[in-house]
Amino acid sequence: xxxxxxxxxxxxxxxxxxxxxxxxxxxxxxxxxxxxxxxxxxxxxxxxxxxxxxxxxxxxxxxxxxxxxxxxxxxxxxxxxxxxxxxxxxxxxxxxxxxxxxxxxxxxxxxxxxxxxxxxxxxxxxxxxxxxxxxxxxxxxxxxxxxxxxxxxxxxxxxxxxxxxxxxxxxxxxxxxxxxxxxxxxxxxxxxxxxxxxxxxxxxxxxxxxxxxxxxxxxxxxxxxxxxxxxxxxxxxxxxxxxxxxxxxxxxxxxxxxxxxxxxxx
Length: 266
Ligand SMILES: Nc1ncnc2c1ncn2[C@@H]1O[C@H](COP(=O)(O)OP(=O)(O)OP(=O)(O)O)[C@@H](O)[C@H]1O
Ligand SMILES: [Mg+2]
Fold this sequence. Notes:
This protein is α/β, with parallel strands linked by helices. The protein has one domain (3-265): Rossmann fold, CATH 3.40.50. It contains eleven helices and seven strands. It has helices spanning 16-29, 44-47, 59-64, 94-97, 107-112, 132-140, 158-170, 191-204, 217-221, 229-232, 237-265; strands spanning 3-7, 34-38, 75-76, 82-85, 121-125, 143-149, 177-184. A seven-stranded mixed beta sheet has the order 3-4-2-5-1-6-7, sandwiched between helices. Helix 1 packs across helix 11 (237-265). The longest helix is centred in the last third of the chain and has 29 residues, at 237-265. It is globular. The protein binds adenosine-5'-triphosphate (ATP) and magnesium ion (MG). Magnesium ion (MG) is lined by residues 16-17, 40, 44, 125.
């Protein structure tokens, strides 16, 4: 079964895109065939692999027109096990375009169903909002991964995200689970980081991943060179940490599979 992990937090600039790109690349490095989907109109994930001019069709076409198969927009990357479904600015139009369509929240789920079995992991990057794009990602996903920046007020707003998560679990996607919360942009020299780490740990407990992503300039630079952290700075803390995070992700997904099998058998 394919793990479909949506990376979401409606707060902007918390490391969703950096996590989506480098977690996907780390999974590919661990021999997992991975599809990275960019659902953000800002298209920061896409631009980390291709120039905007190289993108002729994107997730916008797939989600706005059910006749456009997702397979037609999948692009290869330099990593043979990592593939990309590009996003572009037009995605911003979907909020209005899909309004009132009864199947609006199911567009991504339906689009993915013919290809998902070809991948071990699907990673979805979402915009900083809880609109129709994020809702589509939560309806299609098996798991939710929430990056939280180690900064004051970091937890503010996660209530809304978790409420949306519960609503989606209640109806369209009861199988959805929280895979984990990852602390990003951590700076061990500051008290702010230490305080917020403690706060996040007390709120999320076991759900929190052991791996923290520290603040590291290499992670900020690599997209400009169209590289992931693993080719740009393979020995940097960012590379080491995202590799560790991928290990934890794989472990949780596999434990979850064992648990669901046991439930099915019971
Ligand atoms: N661990 C890190 N160390 C240093 N810089 C980072 C780190 N993680 C992210 N950044 C930088 O912080 C900025 C915001 O990160 P990113 O784009 O991943 O956040 P986001 O949650 O996807 O933002 P948005 O909500 O706008 O989509 C970017 O410039 C990124 O390069
Ligand atoms: Mg982003």
